[in-house]
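Marked as duplicate of an earlier ticket. Keeping the data here for the record.
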Amino acid sequence: MPTTVKGVIARHPNEPAELTDIEIPDPGVHDVVVDVEACGVCHTDLAYRDGAITDDFPFLLGHEAAGRVAAIGDEVTHVAVGDFVVLNWRAVCGDCRACRKGRPQYCFATHNASQRMTLRDGTELEAALGIGAFTEKTLVHEKQCTKVSEEARPEVAGLLGCGVMAGLGAALNTGDVQRGETVAVIGLGGVGSAAIAGAVLAGATTVIGLDIVDEKLQAASDLGATHTINTKDLDRDQIVERVQDLTGGFGADVVIDAVGIPSTYETAFYARDLAGRVVLVGVPHPDAELAIPLADVFSRGGSLKSAWYGDCLPERDFPYLTDLYLQGRLPLERFVTGTTDLGGVEDALNSLHRGDVLRTVVVNR
């Protein structure tokens, strides 16, 4: 029988998120019902609410979550009832063209639940990133569940489900930061701050954080940034010069743009060393356009990359990073700047506009 729980939905673009009753169907043969213990409030949820992802309203918001498996379908083998899991939105299929080429981090046919969750009147809900976790329970495919250590706090472990993994992976996987390299990160929200932590973890010796908010610059220093630059009153050329001054006059080996607007990307492009790497992890608006002289693209060499989910493989990366956190080598707890309940999701979404938090986490007690 379907289960009725509370969940947060977006009915129409740019309207407040709404706490209401939703129906969780019994799991299909490869589906899993998860008791959601914690879920981070991510910019992607804000984009869903405001209609910047698709117009497939209504949405069940939330996706950056951890919890326990409550029920499983008849043919589920990947997890068992009671397992503590982090939910992921790249449940590798193993058979699409990316997987067959040995690039499963780009899987184009990721698994999702076989059924939709609904409102009580039967209206089907589009789950954010195929998860929908601003709720007491959610329904996902078994491969969307990644088991991690029972010792991890849910509000911390769940952050690996999206934003923190995106930033860590932008440095560790996409940017392939090597020991002794120099790294600059533009934009120090949750994703950019995680990129700082990833660069430090990879062994970069110079790690530069750039933002317009002093509190975020301090947070980056706390995460291991060796230098910070407040860019509020600086133009592109001045920013580039400051980065070059901190990197022997050359520019950074890797520059990560965690904002995703044309001006920050241009800054990233010119702030890197010759043959350096640019990583775009900030999600641009669909209407954003970029104009960089093609001769500059050619003459500066290197690579221009986009980080999709930090190029992560959840089954490889989530347990590994959770263990580093438990060993005290990855300060994931620093990303949790506040907690709330399901009734506070709308306020938490609006706080993202103000840029005064890294992550507010919804905790179901």
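See parent ticket for discussion. The chain has a mean pLDDT of 96.
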